[in-house]
Amino acid sequence: MSTPIGIIFRDIQRAQRLADFGFKEDLVTAGLLAGAELSRACDWLELREEITVEYPEGEVVSVTQHDGSVLRLRKLAPDYDPHNRIAAMNYIQQHAAKGEVVTGLLYVDPEPEDLHRHLNTFEAPFNALDATELCPGSAVLEKINAALR
Questions:
Q1: Is pLDDT above 80 for 105?
Q2: Residue-level pLDDT at 27
Q3: What CA–CA distance (Å, rounded) separates 86 from 89?
Q4: What does pTM read for this prediction?
Q5: Beta strands in the chain, from DSSP E residues, in sequence order
């Protein structure tokens, strides 16, 4: 008997974005989308031997999967510039329209924002804080919960 490996779309919007990027038929085939809506949040695959492939930059390789389906992978060319967000999205779309999945470093923000500043996190590590700093009190928690309703 095969051992199932869990494949979970924890972020349902991510699965929907895959559909939006041209993988809708694959997700419908896998039973993850019904029409344009997500029908269930997870699926499973049987444990199989790993499939690996080596191919040169800028090239496309067709990889036959265990079920007989073929995945066409395109490795980025050495002169690809990953610093243009719109160009990266267009590149993905253009190749998805050809049935290709682009692999490699597709986008790097040339001026990234500090993650802690972006998320407005506390500067000190939590294990260095005492109970009064970790718990803002019932009134503040109620206000936070009310904002999330």
A1: yes
A2: 47
A3: 5
A4: 0.52
A5: 4-8, 33-34, 37-38, 42-46, 60-64, 70-75, 100-103
